[in-house]
Task: structure prediction
Amino acid sequence: MKSILNLRYLLAIAVVATIFTSCGKDDDGGGATTIMGCTDSEAENYNADATESDNSCVYARDKFIGNYQGSMTFQNLGGLLDQDSLAFTITPGISNANEVLVGVTIQSVPVFLDGIAVGDSILVDDVFNLPDGGAINPILTGMPVEVVFAGGVEMMNDGQTVEGQLDIVFKTESLDDIADIATLEGVKQ
Result:
């Protein structure tokens, strides 16, 4: 009788031990443990240990996507190009997970610039070709103008405001380059 009780006791311990050792790890049947998480190395919450995506990836660009209302002021060109009321849009790009497209209208000319979101910043290094510079300044009427943009904006702590600077160079074939720095501010609507 005592041996039957001991046998039952040992079986009960074996069952409990099996339950505890099998819980806590997902096994794909091949002996490897499945770790759920973000598997995209371009995401802010990338988990290098994750073996299977749980669709939780968050990208730097996500915080910027939206419509903004703000202003753009130029250090040197001042009154010629300043815009006290400026609407601009930041949308996802199509090439990679952190690419954005910044759409802004400068002096009634729609401009679309490619940028890359890195952390709390968007970096822009792009060229916009304007067939007739007269749209931004009468002196440039009839001249094709290449406008070079470099710089970026940073998301402020409130998660709604972006601020930054763009180096802008206006290039024509017949005039010297015109360079300026534009300060850009905007609040997500």
About this structure: Residues 61-188 form a domain with the Lipocalin fold (CATH 2.40.128). The mean pLDDT is 86. DSSP finds one helix and ten strands in the chain.
